[in-house]
Amino acid sequence: MSILPGNRFARFRFYAPIGVEDVRLSDHSIIGRWKVQPTRFYGETEKTLAERFANWGREEIDIQNFTERYGPLAGSRFDGPQFRFAVAAWRSNQQEFRKYWCEVEQGHVGKHEPLQGSTIEIRRGWLDFCCGALWTFMTLELLSEVEKVRICERPDCSKNKYFVAQHGKERYCSPDCANWSQARLKMRWHEQQRQKRKQERGKVNGTDKTR
């Protein structure tokens, strides 16, 4: 009986074929064409695409810009040379993804079914999983680092509320939000000291009056 090494799946990776052109807004919908030769997108170094998508703007121009850069959330060139989707559908999908992000952050990770079109191949010594849609790629990114998935604890955070932590103790998405937290703690401490001094003065004044 042969014994397989424990790291036999160490050279596994996933990617999404991306590449679109002639993307434009028409009657509250985004339309465009798939490129004949897509690019293998394995992710970016600074942020995961999942993080970018969760925090992306929701205006029509924002959604158009996202599509120009990465493509539609679902579908591929095998569905036809052109694509079209409603802006409202994109917003709904983003809201659904944010909800799923919250579930993962709370430790509620369930089964995920990749969208149709996904394939597996051996490429240059790697086991490559080709995601059938951008949505599948972003979900796999999210599930790859569940222990680092965070939601900024600043209630009014509007920069990068959904983020992937660099270390286990991070609670805020940026130095600005971390500084906001420190400022709040200082204000609370000063208020507590003020109240304490006020109470002490009241005790002293009360003692003087009884003498």
Uncertain spans, ≥5 residues at pLDDT below 50?
none
Arithmetic mean of pLDDT: 85
What spatial order of strands do you see in the largest sheet? Answer: 3-2-1-5-4
Specify the structural class: alpha+beta
Tally the structural domains: 2
Cα gyration radius (Å): 25 Å
Kindly state the number of beta strands: 7
**Tell me, what's the shape?**
elongated
Number of helices: 5
In what range is the share of β-strand residues? 15-25%
What does the main sheet amount to?
Answer: 5 strands, mixed
SSE run: EEHHEHEEHEEH
What is the percent of helical residues? Answer: 25-40%
Q: In angstroms, what separates the terminal alpha carbons?
A: 95 Å
Summarize the structure in words.
It contains five helices and seven strands, in the order ββααβαββαββα. The chain is α+β, with helices and mostly antiparallel strands and 211 residues long. It folds into two domains: 12-167, no CATH class; 174-211. The strands form two sheets. A five-stranded mixed sheet has the order 3-2-1-5-4. A two-stranded antiparallel ribbon has the order 6-7. A hairpin with a 2-residue loop joins β1 (12-26) and β2 (29-41). α1 (49-55) packs across α4.
